[in-house]
Amino acid sequence: MRSRTIQAATAWPAHPPAAAPPRTLLRVPLAGALTGASAEAVAPELWVGVHLPGFGDAPEKLSHLATRAQRFTPRVSLVPPDGLLLEVKGSLHLFAGVKGLRGELADECLRLKTQPVLAFAPTPLAALTAARAGKPLVITDPAQLTGQLAPLPLSALRWPEETLVRLARTGVRTVGAVLRLPRAGFARRFGVAQLTMLDALLGRAPDVRAAFRARERFRRRRELDCELTDHELLLETLAPLFAALGLFLTARQCGVTVVEGLFGHRQRQETRCVLSLAAPCADGQRLAALFAERLNALQLPAPVRSCELRADILVPHLPGSHGLWQPGEHGGNAGAVAGGLIECLRARLGTEAVQGLALRDEHRPESAWALSGPPPLAAAPRRAAGHAPAAACGAKDHGAASRRPLWILPQPRPLAAQHGLPQRRGPLRLLSEPERIESGWWDDAGIERDYYIAIDARGVRLWVFRERTAPHRWFLHGVFG
Question: What pLDDT is stored for residue 272 in this prediction?
Fold first, then answer.
């Protein structure tokens, strides 16, 4: 590096002290002669812009590449659909400088069968713009930003098409041309957003990028010294894995609703055992007990040679506090006991064997409910005392909801009629005014009915209806408790 030595001229007072301070010698490098080390001292950050042509059709590959790129630096940002940014100033010495880092990063992209364009610059937008323009620039000195970026086309900034067309009509097609325009006039005609982007391009304004965080998951595997067929021995082998899972979840304040166990056999065969929970859980011992119920109902086709425990989906979870009263005492909440019963039944009998009921926004009684999975108990709303539940079957008021029976027959049952009145173990006595339901014309399953509350000779309250169209038959549709 050529340099020249300048004696610093310091203006001392007219009467200097007895011991004057020594004169300082400054080494000032010549303009344009910065070496790599000096440039790194000038630029506080160095970003790598990665342009991945064709990644717009496979967004999952971008996240996968970002996860792999975290071995170079923890500061990785996604720029969908085909861009990636890495801040690598502190990682250059680990990969033999820019050249070594470029080669390593290109190899990671080639593993995904894509040919990347890599560019280095002190600002993230400058690196990304150069990569999008297909220019593998290496700009380490902020003073060279304007000159290196000036020939790049404006399309690399990905401004709105209307803005690019208006600028092209005035002969502005490159970054350098737009930087020479008056700032005030540009802001009036094209908005402040594009002007702010130009400032971020040259490092005059901050460019904050959201850091990419890879999805956390738990996976632990154990190879067995001998083949096992006994379920109890398998559970003992899995006990350390469930303990590690509990510590993993507690440290992250997360829980799981699905835990998967994989048991390896000879010839690379595997048996899956899936545990589904009604609510998030982070207790390793409880997860092990529920998994034991699920495993005991599983038939293993061959001896087990390896065990693996997986939890791929983590959900936020904070353990609830225990109440002062026991469930059922003085209003003590029994939700935790009910949740434990549901999870135990599902683990022992299978997920499909335990179902919940959900209301549907439908007026036809036979279509107003559906089977569903048990909802998380923590999310169930608490109703105030005296508050009636939501009206079922499309009813709009609490009075209509109270007239609906809890037991609805799967199919309405025909009733005999005499003198226009329904018969069941004798004549029925109608207790209410008719409730008319006309619905379902859009799916060729329309109904036109008048519903009544009736009582038979034994005092059983029934829910019956009469067809409004000929032949005006009577049907039994529900029974009150």
Answer: 93
pLDDT of res. 6: 37
Interval 265-271 mean pLDDT: 87
Which CATH number applies to 41-201: 3.10.310.30, 3.40.50.300, 3.30.70.270, 3.30.420.10? 3.30.70.270
Tokens (6 digits) for 60: 């999952």
> What are the boundaries of each domain within the chain?
41-201, 224-316, 399-479
Choose among 193, 151, 192: nearest CA to 173: 151
Domain at 224-316, CATH class: alpha beta
Is the pLDDT score of 68 beyond 70?
yes
Asked whether residue 57 carries a pLDDT value surpassing 80, the answer given is: no
Q: Does the pLDDT value for residue 72 go beyond 90? A: yes
- Specify the pLDDT at position 180: 94
What pLDDT is recorded for position 1? Answer: 40
Give the tens place of pLDDT for each residue, 170-229. Answer: 999 999 999 999 999 999 999 899 999 999 999 999 998 988 988 888 999 999 989 998
Domain 41-201 and domain 224-316, same fold? Reply is no
Check pLDDT > 50 for residue 28. Answer: no
What is the predicted pLDDT for the residue at 285? 92
